[in-house]
Amino acid sequence: MYSFKNDYSEGVHPRILNALMESNMEQLEGYGEDQYTRKAIALLKEKIKCEDIDIHLFSGGTQTNLTAISAFLRPHEAVIAADTGHILVHETGAIEATGHKIISIDVSDGKLNSENIKSALYAHTDEHMVRPKLVYISNPTEMGSIYSKDELEQLSDCCRAHKLFLYVDGARIGSALCSEENDMELEDLGKLVDAFYIGGTKNGALMGEALVICRDSLKEDFRFHIKQKGGLLAKGRLLGIQFLELFRDDLFFELAKHANDMAKLLKVGISEAGYSFLTHSPSNQIFPILPNGVIEKLQEKYLFYVWEKIDDESSAIRLVTSWATKEEKVLEFNEDLHNVNC
Amino acid sequence: MYSFKNDYSEGVHPRILNALMESNMEQLEGYGEDQYTRKAIALLKEKIKCEDIDIHLFSGGTQTNLTAISAFLRPHEAVIAADTGHILVHETGAIEATGHKIISIDVSDGKLNSENIKSALYAHTDEHMVRPKLVYISNPTEMGSIYSKDELEQLSDCCRAHKLFLYVDGARIGSALCSEENDMELEDLGKLVDAFYIGGTKNGALMGEALVICRDSLKEDFRFHIKQKGGLLAKGRLLGIQFLELFRDDLFFELAKHANDMAKLLKVGISEAGYSFLTHSPSNQIFPILPNGVIEKLQEKYLFYVWEKIDDESSAIRLVTSWATKEEKVLEFNEDLHNVNC
Amino acid sequence: MYSFKNDYSEGVHPRILNALMESNMEQLEGYGEDQYTRKAIALLKEKIKCEDIDIHLFSGGTQTNLTAISAFLRPHEAVIAADTGHILVHETGAIEATGHKIISIDVSDGKLNSENIKSALYAHTDEHMVRPKLVYISNPTEMGSIYSKDELEQLSDCCRAHKLFLYVDGARIGSALCSEENDMELEDLGKLVDAFYIGGTKNGALMGEALVICRDSLKEDFRFHIKQKGGLLAKGRLLGIQFLELFRDDLFFELAKHANDMAKLLKVGISEAGYSFLTHSPSNQIFPILPNGVIEKLQEKYLFYVWEKIDDESSAIRLVTSWATKEEKVLEFNEDLHNVNC
Amino acid sequence: MYSFKNDYSEGVHPRILNALMESNMEQLEGYGEDQYTRKAIALLKEKIKCEDIDIHLFSGGTQTNLTAISAFLRPHEAVIAADTGHILVHETGAIEATGHKIISIDVSDGKLNSENIKSALYAHTDEHMVRPKLVYISNPTEMGSIYSKDELEQLSDCCRAHKLFLYVDGARIGSALCSEENDMELEDLGKLVDAFYIGGTKNGALMGEALVICRDSLKEDFRFHIKQKGGLLAKGRLLGIQFLELFRDDLFFELAKHANDMAKLLKVGISEAGYSFLTHSPSNQIFPILPNGVIEKLQEKYLFYVWEKIDDESSAIRLVTSWATKEEKVLEFNEDLHNVNC
After folding, report:
1. Residue B145: is its pLDDT beyond 90?
2. In A113, A149, C274, D52, which residue has its Cα 20 to 30 A from C177's Cα atom?
3. Which pLDDT belongs to residue D342?
4. Rounded Cα distance, D111 and D147, in Å
5. Tell me, what's the ipTM?
6. Residues in chain A, pLDDT under 50
7. Among D96, D129, D130, whose Cβ lies nearest the Cβ of B100?
8. Which of A255, A309, A317 is nearest to A285 (CA)?
9. Rounded distance, CA B171 to CA B205, Å?
10. Tell me, what's the pLDDT at A340?
11. Cβ burial C125-160 (10 Å sphere, 16+ → b, else e)
12. Reduced to 3 states, what is the DSSP secondary structure of residue D67?
């Protein structure tokens, strides 16, 4: 069986493992105050082309989201998110567990726009309702779509006009930034949003997310929150070394590009086989719609999620590629699909 | 500079790194449902000689403590802990952040006994006060002391008589179990307490704690809590592989024994140099009392914490050894102390 | 100006004020342990025809909801509620502030049915999502509709089959039980649901809600939760005396019936004037749809909420009657509407 | 039996009941936006001689404390309190339930000083510990002692120098301000502290506490917090009318003075009978130390708490007087004590 189920099925990129090995027996400061972590942070600031930001390394996305959002908000303040948002659906109520409501916005493509935000603000009129304060978006979204620079600018303007924080869940930000439809860079994120994170776990690391805090007022005492929420790793070097290796040269982007290329190769094959897709997805997650019989055949050789029933005869499935996806397996999948089809 | 500051200054035991490398390119299930994690859990059950327990792997101690304790308690229930307890002092209010009060008990040696517990129960009489429900102890304690089997049995009896949960923070449990004064085994913990964790981070792992839930009523839906609190690693294999390697043979205990041996070697040297200790500590943390001038001299070559002022001329320092502490460095320290002394 | 804005614009029924006065200088136990509170609770048990229930008195609905729900649920458990549910919209995230997510179900008439519940259960499959555990309904709903006994039985069966708690927000339960379309009694609530509250604030009391806990497993230590959430009144007599007076004879039901009668009188007048309603409402809240010009005219003499825009020319308004609504004012309103209309 | 158990055994001062009656049938805005509440707030500002403060009315002390403190603090921030502090002991972990640790300071007389605060700050050095941010004091304290103006000024200076909020629990503030040893006025509180509350429940009201927020940065969106925590009474008039009546003339102070006078009368009698006191208490709570046999005799006619065992033969009891305590009963008590003594 070959898995297109997700982008965390494989281990870590071999270069990272080597880097861990080389530094292994050095005695280093704990809790992320070692030299590797310091260097990784300095390097990330360089890549984002901004010195005036704070960066903290985490071991997972849910932990990053819940620590950041609960640190940023006062008790009565709420999050606005798309109904597909990871924090709304797939984090077991982690945000609510810190006391904050998430206001769900129905969207079709996973993306929020300024109209969505204004309507949420409009509906929350007084102290009998929560106060919307932070807008959560994912880039790419959970539906594989990505934000254009123009779209992000509009969101940013809207948030600043209404004193809302704009936060980007970048669990797969590498895939967004390396998408052929992307027109943004890390630098733009640094300018347009209040905080975002750069996902390592789904792009070659063993684990690791780098939270970037851009807005000054959100920086104070942040390490207290990491510790309180259980996210301060004793051997913080583990995170620092990985990000250092990912960004020392362009490894991070090369890995993301490979994942996107593999997704595109799948898309081409699926399109040629005559099938359409649930969403327009220029990233490493695609959602082809296939007849149920075809899906069953494919399930004999491949692992993937059946995402959504379309009608009695067909369903959308989700295929995810990663830095480790093998081209030969993608070609084999396409061929199998072609053959099943016949 | 050589560090005796803590037991997480070095990386991971090389055998573990090799094990990570060997399995690295396999495609595995995420979130701790991979075969390595399953095997590690089966192996731990074997070591604890009990099948009727649940085991969950975490990436750090604070996260383990906060997830377990908040899952076990109802909102009005509180924890009883020694005033030196890690959760009371050094976890940034992580337990309170989940809504629970910790009742602090003044103790001199870091250890709780059944009299302490009864007095806490006696002081909490009605619904205007919290209800004490879980007793938290560390073994070894934060002062280096360890519990005897008899002491743990008495605590266990007291907790069962008063319907309290007994929870053991085992961040350094390896050191306790390998202490020359220890008369307990993993198996005894499984029988006497309701939940405990086996610390990997401070005993050779990159990170990793194995929470063992013994009491049936505490097991239900536990994975929901791990996910909600941000502790469910996407690449859970990272934890499974490490525990598998640590317990495949006796590596875990060998590493802990080495740390204890090094601490003992330090103790002998320090005693021979004519100094006494703040506490009786048969584990890998010792607290010698030294003249301030001597401390300053030692600080030129060694890193360690100055723990507590004793009087105007002397202070207790904390020296911690680990699986990676080099015997030659310990001997050098002893010699330096001897020479400083002259 | 005469107000149809809500049912808490007036003070307290005079008989209650008299009862407060008569007992005023007695020395009584605090915190709800006085004899009046005890008698009130005994009386309510009689009215519900069940001894095997626990009853606690609160000073407001939000406090009742948040205390009960947070006491009943474990951290990963969630509430299912209609999208119009008071806890979802108008309590400033009070439930989320205690750590629990509310799963919103789109409904048109404010009522949940067993299909809604099953679909929510079906969508929550594993530990990456919260576990639905408590079904929250309001009777009457926030849209003025009420549940029939048959509907409640079906909900109750569904909840029991799926191990869900069924909780009824009875802020206006008097109005529901005295509706001409109602076929239930307090006694039925006691049998079919796990907990519900009997609202006094909106039916003649100065303040006061009586929470009834029917399910044994939800009763333990409940007073701790009331105290912890700030709801244990020092002079608890204030609540006990009011409920005693409301239920000593049928005052509670007479007041609710009056409110319903006044709402019905309004409905007849509005219907005769040729207007329709947003929802079918047999309780003390009605939602007539009127031309915007008519609404403006009425606003010169009456206070009420404009509830929802229907189209460019008309809107639904909300009219609420209470125990204190004067028949002459209702007739005047109807006449004014008739005249405006001409 | 006559009760000296507490100051909430009786109902409400008759003048307040009359005021409630007079306004009872008026239609008023809900949720504290009625004219009576507005007038009460304006009047309180006048008494405090400061316009630049925000005032909110609550129904009880625990609710006031938990709402204010959780609104004022960020998640990692903690409270410093005396070990006798009401929030630490007698509010069922209400503050911890909102996520915040309370740092307990051992004191003998219930009072904190700036040395206590500095030592707490000194002990909290980094992000592994909570950050002390709010100092909670009670005036009078739970031991009956009161702060002098000079003492409060020193605390205030210390807090401002260290960027700490100073918060005063004024459940019995009337008794403090009317103590013969007091040299402060409401006005001084307004200048020296960041927030405090004026307790009505224990001084003649049915219920009611007026929270005064002095520091600008703590005022924003405060009503959201009241609603979220369940403290926003629908018929807010109930609170407004009471405070209006209490402060319309000097009723509030007269009632407090009566309570103090009665306590003093008790003290004189007890001293004359040859007994001493556990603490120096110039307010309405006193703690005489009596032989156990005497206590038993008194318990035949009087209700009070036995506070603390002093030795095998004697205990301290707590006697509390109130606005409603009858002088004849106090004299009777003194006489009974005198007689028992013989």
Report:
1. yes
2. C274
3. 66
4. 8
5. 0.97
6. none
7. D96
8. A317
9. 12
10. 86
11. eebbbbbbbbbbbbbbbbbbbbbeeebbebbbebbe
12. helix
Q: How far is B225 from chain C (nearest CA, A)?
A: 6
How far out from the chain centre does Cα A97 lie?
21
Q: Please give the Cα distance from D74 to D131 (Å, whole number).
A: 10
Please name each of the domains of chain C with its CATH number: 2-6+252-341 (3.90.1150.10), 14-250 (3.40.640.10)
With an 8 Å Cβ cutoff, is A207 touching chain B?
yes
- Residue C258 tokens read as 């009056």
Instruction: Concatenate the DSSP letters of all residues of A231-271 into one string.
Output: ---TTTHHHHHHHHHHHHSSHHHHHHHHHHHHHHHHHHHHH
Query: What sign has the CA pseudo-torsion A222, A224, A230, A236?
Result: positive
Query: Subunits touching A (CB < 8 Å, at least 3 pairs)?
Result: B, C, D
Which residues of B are less than 8 Å from A305 in CB distance?
A: none
Q: What is the block-wise mean pLDDT of chain D (342 residues), using blocks of 10 residues?
A: 94 95 94 97 98 97 98 98 96 98 95 97 96 98 98 98 98 98 97 98 97 98 98 97 97 98 98 96 98 97 96 97 98 95 66
pLDDT at D108: 86
All residues of chain C having their beta carbon less than 8 Å from the beta carbon of residue B223 are 127
Q: Whole-angstrom Cα distance, residue D183 to residue A318?
A: 74
> Nearest CA to C317 among C339, C341, C335, C299?
C299
Angle in degrees, CA C140, D231, C213, rounded to 5: 50
- D14 and chain B in contact, CB less than 8 A: no
Smallest CA-to-CA distance from D170 within D139, D192, D202, D208 is with: D139
Distance CA(B256)–CA(B236), nearest Å, equals 24
In the predicted model, what is the mean pLDDT of residues B136-159?
98
In the three-class reduction of DSSP (H, G, I as helix; E, B as strand; rest coil), residue D23 is classed as coil
Strand, coil or helix: what is D247? helix
Token digits for B289? 């009392």
pLDDT confidence tier of residue C206, bands split at 50, 70 and 90? very high
